[in-house]
UniProtKB/TrEMBL annotation:
<dbReference type="GO" id="GO:0006520">
    <property type="term" value="P:amino acid metabolic process"/>
</dbReference>
<dbReference type="InterPro" id="IPR015421">
    <property type="entry name" value="PyrdxlP-dep_Trfase_major"/>
</dbReference>
<keyword id="KW-0032">Aminotransferase</keyword>
<dbReference type="Pfam" id="PF00155">
    <property type="entry name" value="Aminotran_1_2"/>
</dbReference>
<dbReference type="InterPro" id="IPR004839">
    <property type="entry name" value="Aminotransferase_I/II_large"/>
</dbReference>
<keyword id="KW-0663">Pyridoxal phosphate</keyword>
<dbReference type="InterPro" id="IPR050596">
    <property type="entry name" value="AspAT/PAT-like"/>
</dbReference>
<dbReference type="InterPro" id="IPR015424">
    <property type="entry name" value="PyrdxlP-dep_Trfase"/>
</dbReference>
<dbReference type="GO" id="GO:0008483">
    <property type="term" value="F:transaminase activity"/>
</dbReference>
<keyword id="KW-0808">Transferase</keyword>
<feature type="domain" description="Aminotransferase class I/classII large">
    <location>
        <begin position="31"/>
        <end position="377"/>
    </location>
</feature>
<comment type="similarity">
    <text>Belongs to the class-I pyridoxal-phosphate-dependent aminotransferase family.</text>
</comment>
<protein>
    <recommendedName>
        <fullName>Aminotransferase</fullName>
        <ecNumber>2.6.1.-</ecNumber>
    </recommendedName>
</protein>
<dbReference type="InterPro" id="IPR015422">
    <property type="entry name" value="PyrdxlP-dep_Trfase_small"/>
</dbReference>
<dbReference type="GO" id="GO:0030170">
    <property type="term" value="F:pyridoxal phosphate binding"/>
</dbReference>
<dbReference type="InterPro" id="IPR004838">
    <property type="entry name" value="NHTrfase_class1_PyrdxlP-BS"/>
</dbReference>
Amino acid sequence: MNVPELNRLLKNVSVPGTRQMANRVAGKPESIDLTLGQPDFPVPQAVRNRVMQAVDNEPMKYSHNRGTLELRKAITDFYKDKYSAEYEPSNEVIVTNGGSEALDTIFRTIINPGDEVIMPAPIYTGYEPIVTMLGGTAVLVDTTETGFIPTVQKLEAAMTQRTKAVLLNYPNNPTGAVYPEGTVASLVELFKRHDIFVVVDEMYAENTLDGEHHSFTSYPEIKDRLLAVNGLSKSHAMTGWRIGWLLASAEMIEKLTLVHLYNTLCASMPSQIAALEALTGAADVPAEMNAAYKERRDYIYRRLVDMGLETVLPEGAFYIFPSIKEYNESSFDFAVELLEEAGVAVVPGAAFSEYGEGHIRISFATGMENLEEAADRMEKFLNGKK
Ligand code: PLP
């Protein structure tokens, strides 16, 4: 029997470059893996304790489709305290299965075939496939000339009659770029002039290493078009627990809830209980992790600069994105050689769109010893290339 034809849009989607590189490194135990997109810290003890106790004593049935009210209130309280953002727990937040489901729910709610979504690039590998699978188009805007931060002019120039949304991510994966307050304020002015949705992925907001995260949720004047995504995967080292959320106006949440509920009914209950504990009993954890990330960031930045690589200092997340353009080869070839010859695994910049080409992404979500050894190996490798 012939297998029936699949969804044709799948032809435009392939396995992300991050995963391809992680698979290559899996068979090389002696190599140092700097491809990792997840914190190397344990899940906070308070979170683990709370879940163990809950599993024995609580029913763990379905929750409300939008998540337990206690957790939704903890999320909206967090946004109120941190960003002076006013969101109603009852009808302006949905708890999702990770940030990924929040993004998927958003685009399935707003995209019609032919719609365009503007994405400042380099971009996270997960974005383009979601939009493509809906028959939409990702319109990439180059940020490599402006420290990986988009400008009002370039975003506005990319807008057309078909533009449905802009998707912003900061602290950024893969560049570690953070938007200054002035940039956020000027983008708010831009978005006030255009009838488009503003989707902001704040998954790394708690991993802002210098200064404060400036959130679009602090600007009520664009609340009607703002869709904000966040979660605990990065902030609390809870990638496998699959807890994220999205914030939006009550009108939008009504529609978003339909998509979310027919997809998944509700987020996992044990993880929702864990998430409530993370936001209330383990609120200091991100700052503790950031102290370690900062030390590692400063170290690896200095080493890369000393190796002669043009590198933007990342102000958030746990990635650094040096240029390898002077070596005149594709980022994929460079990364494969670095792995085969020096035993250091990194992600080729091209995995993050054409605007990532000429770079590599190094994750510093790993211990100092690993970073030191990797930097030594890399330096030797580069000296051999000169
Ligand atoms: N957004 C960005 C920018 C990410 O880097 C990731 C994961 O690496 C996600 C979203 C997905 O988050 P989650 O693991 O909570 O689904």
